[in-house]
Amino acid sequence: MDKPTLQNRSYLSVSIALLAVGALTFLLFRNGEKWLRSILIYLSQAGWARTSVSNWGVSWRVASRFVSGTDREAAIATTRALNDKGLLVTLDYLGESCTNSGEAQQAQAEILRLLDDIEKHKLQANVSLKPTQLGLKLDPQLACENIRVVVQKAKSVGNFIRIDMEDHPTTDATLNIYRQLRYTDKLDNVGVVIQSYLYRSEGDIEQLIGDGARVRLCKGAYAEPPEAAYPQKADVDANYLNLSRMLLSDKARSNGVYPAFATHDPAMIDDIKLYVRANNIPIDSFEFQMLFGIRRDLQVALAEEGYRVRVYVPYGTAWYPYFVRRLAERPANIWFFISNFVKA
Ligand code: FDA
Q1: What is the pLDDT of residue 48?
Q2: Which of 309, 329, 333, 335 is the best mutation target for the ligand 1 pocket, counting ligand atoms within 8 Å of the beta carbon and taking the most?
Q3: Gap between the Cα atoms of 115 and 101, Å rounded
């Protein structure tokens, strides 16, 4: 990850130029933020950009704010440090959209080793995984089988697996895998994620509440078309609050739903805190979740107030798409990246 080759340098320059154009559009035009987000989501999926940006030391310097390290040892050290501060962890071995069954097997083997290490080191941590990392785009049945082995292993060591949610074309297949594991295989140590930007999410939450599921609620991190998702942030936020109320309802709690509110947004967090207090909901019947490297101050403050807080800690060499999605979420992160490029 040192000096880029001449070809990579040109790819890098194209990536940075696209970013700079996006950043200027953001500043100059009313819909600039949407354009900037679209450019970044495009870059997060572009193979040419991935190779050149990933192989460049400066990118890693910026990305390492959001990624604990490239190997399991680094992730374990980070987890221990967070646990010492009273924070729970969910570990994510980075990877998505695998292109052959060998890659899916490799990811599965690493996650199985991770589960052993969590037990060995007595860490307060569970594991999150992405269905496309375990083969969803190759064959949903293969992904289901791969994930089943992981969930069974987690059960044998008293741990829990969260199936992350990816872009909307994978939502049905992901929920089907969850249902198969939870109801056909009767594995109770698995949970799913619902995104408040999707129109369909209210119906999905209703069904999951009926089933007593463990649901993580987030806003959603992918570029979605207006046919599938609310284009306006205000609507995504309003739906987040609506869905959080559903997950905290008497019906949900009596069905055993244990929600995880994954957000750094103080407006969402304060609203949930007020709602919980006003309705005498025990603070150990849900948790807040945040990403490693984002709002560390808030993570610690909430834990000190007595809330359960879980930090999502990613590790691995396939950090590029995860990192670029973090840039897409907050324009200020891009200036930091561009200024490092200029200094390099
Ligand atoms: P919002 O984007 O409104 O940001 C609120 C504030 O948070 C910002 O003003 C800023 O202060 C801070 N912030 C947010 N993002 C930041 C960033 N990248 N850098 C610096 N500051 C930032 N998505 C998904 O589609 N599927 C999934 O499975 C998951 N899983 C998941 C797990 C966990 C634990 C978290 C916290 C998030 C996810 N997400 C996700 C991502 C989620 O959908 C969303 O994109 C981000 O959390 C950003 O949205 P916020 O709710 O934080 O609010």
Answers
A1: 74
A2: 329
A3: 21
Which own/partner contact pairs does 246-254 have at CB distance under 8 Å and 24+ positions apart?
246/202, 246/205, 246/206, 246/209, 247/205, 247/209, 247/215, 247/217, 247/286, 248/272, 248/275, 248/276, 248/279, 248/281, 248/286, 249/209, 251/209, 252/209, 253/281, 253/285
Q: How far is CA 249 from the centre of its chain?
A: 25
- Cα angle 102, 106, 108 (rounded to 5 degrees) comes to 115
- Among candidate residues 318, 261, 257, the one with its CA nearest the CA of residue 63: 318
**What pLDDT is stored for residue 115 in this prediction?**
98
Q: What is the largest CA-CA distance in the chain?
A: 62
Give me the pLDDT at residue 112, please. Answer: 98
The reported pLDDT for the residue numbered 1 is 46
HSE value, Cβ hemisphere, 13 Å, CA-based, for 229: 23
Binding pocket residue ranges, ligand 1, CB within 6 Å: 164-165, 193, 195, 218-222, 262-265, 289-291, 294-295, 312, 326, 329-330, 333
Question: Looking at the chain, how many residues does it have?
Answer: 344
In this prediction, residue 317 carries a pLDDT of 93
Q: Which pLDDT does position 19 carry in this prediction?
A: 66
The pLDDT value recorded for residue 38 is 80
Low-confidence ranges of the chain (pLDDT < 50): 1-4
216 labelled catalytic: yes
Burial call 305-338: b when 16+ CB within 10 Å, e when fewer:
eebbbbbbbbbbebbbbbbbbbbbeebebbeebe
What element of type H or E holds 154?
helix 140-156
Measured distance CA(214)–CA(245) in Å, rounded: 15
Return the closest-CA partner of residue 191 out of 127, 98, 276: 127
Ramachandran angles phi, psi of 218, nearest 5°: -130, 175
